[in-house]
Amino acid sequence: MQKDHGNSAPSTPTSGRVRHRRRSNEVAMVVIIQIFMASELFNLLRRAHEDKRLPGFRILNWYFYFTAMLFVYGRILSHRLVNTVTSDKIFYRLVSRLIKYQMVICYFLYIAGFMWFIITLKKKMYKYQFGQFAWTHMILIVVFTQSAFTVANIFEGIFWFLLPASLIAVNDVAAYFFGFFFGKTPLIKISPKKTWEGFIGASVATMIAAFLLANVFGQFQWLTCPRKDLSTGWLHCDPGPVFKPEFYPLPGWISQWLPWKEIAILPVQWHALCLGLFASIIAPFGGFFASGFKRAFKIKMVMAVFAYIYHQSFVVAQDYTVETILDEILSSLTFEEQKALYTKLGQIVQDRMLGLSQS
User: Fold this and answer.
1) Burial level of 234, CB count in 10 A (0-12/13-18/19+)?
2) Mean pLDDT (the chain, rounded)
3) Which of 61-65, 149-153, 168-172, 197-201 has the lowest mean pLDDT?
4) Among 59, 78, 80, 62, residue whose Cα is nearest residue 144
5) Closest C-alpha to 278, from 249, 306, 246
6) Cα–Cα distance between 8 and 131 in angstroms, integer?
7) How sure is the predictor about 41, in pLDDT bands with cuts at 50, 70 and 90?
8) For residues 95 and 230, is the Cβ–Cβ distance under 8 A?
9) Contact, 271 vs 235, CB < 8 A?
10) What is the CB neighbour count within 10 angstroms for residue 83?
11) Which residue ranges traverse the bilayer (predicted)?
12) 74 in helix, strand or coil?
């Protein structure tokens, strides 16, 4: 169960978490799927007759959608975008300004859309128009916002996207298997095929799968490395603390039957148990919600939100790292301010080295 570095790209002599890439499109894939989902949901409550009397009203839904996309992805990708364009001074200044005023830009774009909606209101169509307005915001909250967390998970490391998605799949398959062969007691009226036997059996299977899959996925650095800019593709870095194995001695009565005296466990496997518990108990209610909503939503995105919140709360170190401080410097300071900071830091380091040499 130890980490095998032979199955990832060969390392280069560096310090810190160094990344190497070649082209890939996992983030673009999530965004494209997200757009198709929104399109299907926009059409769910449309009425062709009313739409003919409201030319351009359909464009308004997409206007709100792309405004929300600009706001959410702008917040998620701001630092990574700055890191991508630091080599081009003009483009760097332009991007820095856009990021600085991104919130106010999105706010006024939304206000413009709101005014557009008010202007397009027509008599005898108020109920339909306000229904569509509310439905659009429902889609943004339930679908768009949660799928944006999926993108955020990918940038924290594909591991944090792949493991939760795999646990949901395992839970669904196990629930069907145990429910089909052992199911007798109905679980919930809104989904009559769900049974307590399937629910409990799937929970146990998902917890076991979470512990084992975390160890398997944790062996591959291109799955565990975070992305610090918008370059895409395979990643290689020094593994983080949660992906470095810890060794636990086996009890004597067990080790006498096995060829090894200790077992290697990745710390992330303990975190995976929490994800597995959530996928087993809470995430299935996303399916119940889908049943109650006439199965309009066929993907359990609630898991993506929990995975991101859990990762930020319990896995990511809360202290500031060199990379975090550098990201802030590059995104918040002008080039002249960065040069002044560099000079000041140089003086401080020189003074400290002089003091150490004299003592």
Assistant:
1) middle
2) 79
3) 149-153
4) 62
5) 306
6) 52
7) confident
8) no
9) no
10) 18
11) 27-45, 57-78, 98-121, 133-152, 158-183, 195-217, 270-293
12) helix
Global confidence as pTM: 0.68
262 SS3 class: strand
3-class secondary structure for 161-219?
HHHHHHHHHHHHHHHHHHHHHHCCCEEECCEEEEEHHHHHHHHHHHHHHHHHHHHHHCC
Per-residue pLDDT for 48 more than 60? Answer: yes
Q: Which residues pair with 188 in a beta bridge?
A: 191
pLDDT digits (tens, 9 = 90+) for 87-137: 566 766 777 777 778 889 999 999 999 999 999 898 888 888 898 899 899
Longest dimension (CA), the chain: 86
Q: Give 195's strand partners.
A: 186
**Are the beta carbons of 163 and 139 closer than 8 angstroms?**
no
CA 241 to chain centre: 20
Tell me 358's DSSP state.
H
Burial (CB count within 10 angstroms: exposed 0-12, middle 13-18, buried 19+), residue 244: middle
Q: What is the pLDDT of residue 16?
A: 42
DSSP state of 333: S
pLDDT of residue 227: 76
Contacts 24+ apart (CB under 8 A), 318-323: 322/16, 323/16, 323/17, 323/228
- 263 DSSP β-pair partners: 248
The answer to whether the CB of 221 falls within 8 A of the CB of 235 is yes
Structure token digits, residue 184: 């007798």
How far is 2 from 216, CA to CA, in rounded Å? 10
**Does the pLDDT value for residue 351 go beyond 80?**
yes
* E-assigned strand segments in 63-150: none
Give CA–CA dist 348/333, Å, rounded: 19
